[in-house]
């Protein structure tokens, strides 16, 4: 008798004597599959033989299909939700050190003049920045 491929595995051709594990970056959610599915943007699959994709955690992102890892949001950006495929950019008046889930407002005495800054700038001698 024949046996259906297990979740996490697939059988792409006839007359096969074994099942093939889903590749890293791919998954197979159900039994009897004939192909593997690439992880969707916002998700990743870190190991072979997976039956599910994993959402990118807060502070990380996965921008393409078939990713095997979720990357930290780089400095000047953040990711506010799980399963993020794109980055949010810190706005003027805010900064993002990277790998976080929100932008941070500039502290009194500091300012952030541009988008995508990873740190705040102290006010120069002779100048001040009140709480905003």
Draw up the topology in text.
Blueprint: E1 9-10, E2 20-21, E3 26-27, E4 37-38, E5 43-44, E6 54-55, E7 60-61, E8 71-72, E9 77-78, E10 88-89, E11 94-95, E12 104-105, E13 110-111, E14 121-122
Antiparallel strand pairs: 1-2, 3-4, 5-6, 7-8, 9-10, 11-12, 13-14
Q: Overview of this structure, please?
A:
The protein has 132 residues and is mostly beta strands. Helices cover 0% and strands 21% of the residues. The chain has no helices and 14 strands. It has strands spanning 9-10, 20-21, 26-27, 37-38, 43-44, 54-55, 60-61, 71-72, 77-78, 88-89, 94-95, 104-105, 110-111, 121-122. The strands form 7 sheets. Strands 1-2 form a two-stranded antiparallel ribbon. The N and C termini lie far apart (73 Å).
Please describe the structure with a list of short key phrases separated by commas or semicolons.
132 residues, mainly beta, two-stranded antiparallel sheet, two-stranded antiparallel ribbon, 0% helix
Low-confidence region ranges:
none
Strand order of the largest sheet: 1-2
Estimated share of beta-strand residues: 15-25%
Query: How far is the N terminus from the C terminus?
Result: 73 Å
- Integer average pLDDT: 96
Secondary-structure element series? EEEEEEEEEEEEEE
Helix fraction by DSSP (H/I, runs of at least 4): under 10%
Secondary structure category = mainly beta
Given the C-alpha coordinates, what overall shape results?
rod-shaped
Major beta-sheet overview: 2 strands, antiparallel
Rg over CA atoms: 22 Å
Give the count of helical stretches: 0
Number of strands: 14
């Amino acid at each position: 008798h024949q046996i259906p491929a297990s979740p996490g595995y697939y059988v792409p051709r006839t007359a096969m004597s074994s099942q093939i594990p889903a590749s890293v970056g791919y998954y197979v959610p159900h039994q009897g599959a004939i192909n593997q599915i690439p992880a969707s943007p916002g998700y990743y699959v870190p190991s072979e033989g997976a039956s599910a994709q994993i959402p990118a955690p807060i502070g990380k992102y996965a921008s393409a299909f078939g990713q095997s890892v979720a990357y930290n949001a780089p400095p000047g950006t953040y990711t506010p939700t799980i399963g993020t495929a794109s980055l949010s950019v810190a706005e003027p008046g805010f900064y993002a050190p990277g790998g976080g889930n929100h932008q941070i407002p500039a502290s009194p005495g500091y300012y952030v003049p541009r988008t995508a800054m990873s740190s705040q700038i102290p006010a120069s001698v002779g100048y001040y920045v009140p709480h905003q």
